[in-house]
Input
Amino acid sequence: MSQVSTVRGPVDAADLGPTYMHEHIFVLTADVQQNYPGEWGSEDARITDAVTKLGALAAQGVRTIVDPTVVGLGRNLPRIQRVAEQVPELNIIVATGLYVYEEMPHQYSYRGPGLLIDIPEPMVTDFSRDITEGIAGTGVKAAFLKCALETPEPTPGVERIARAIARTHVETGAPITVHTSGPHQTGRIAVRIFREEGVDLSKVVIGHAGDSNDLDYLTELADTGVLLGMDRFGLDLFNPYAERVKTIIALASRGYAASMVLSHDANCFIDYFGAAHDAARAAAAPNWHYEHITDDVLPALLASGVTQEQIDTMMVENPVRYFTPAKGGAS
Ligand SMILES: [Zn+2]
Output
């Protein structure tokens, strides 16, 4: 039985249950938070808020969330451990990687193969350590890799990150989630780079594929073996709810249920908008929370002819397959 690392320790991959493949808990900018702590407020209150929201999610029957919050999004494992301890019915799977749209962080700019400090790719070293030994001394192991391909053409730094992610996948067997742009159809770039690096494409989620309704683009990606992240339910600003649902129905009817995973890309706190503007954020995206899929999306899919079996494929079987090593490799 293959096991997958979660915040509270390993669980059998087969037991993940209904899973959301892309949910954050806290998204913030650590050095801004350290210098302007007012927005974050009380650590205890934030933890309590997250426990409440994730507890409500678990009460809907969801058993696992996959959290792609890496460096660049404010990953803080001790904080997530405090949350996980208080929501024992929910597995939280965490990631390693780097979330960058354009500029390579200075911390990696001058070290690496052929650079001023000429050493083996330090990102591979860091990501691999998070997967094999654990993150920042917590003992919690990352179970998957995350990077971003947002712009129509990746910068050299962003491409270097994507290749480091791919190489870490090849070394460790850990699967990958890549943030992509629906409008720019950067999933194609992800497939090209990962193919060149020998990635097992069945271990790749093309994150935010569901921001696109271009069935030619989506089926072209799915036919390479990747999973499509239909993962921004509630972010209707990027793609309206009705369109997101219609696209899933169309893909399911063409036999692509085995190529899709579901999620909201939601969070309990994000510093992009500021706590003072919570009401404006909620007004702009009222359904952007963890309970939208169960409350609204699944009933809409079922009413339109998507079967419960296809929903189970998207929510249970596909995540299990993603986290199960292909040939008994590392997990
Ligand atoms: Zn995200």
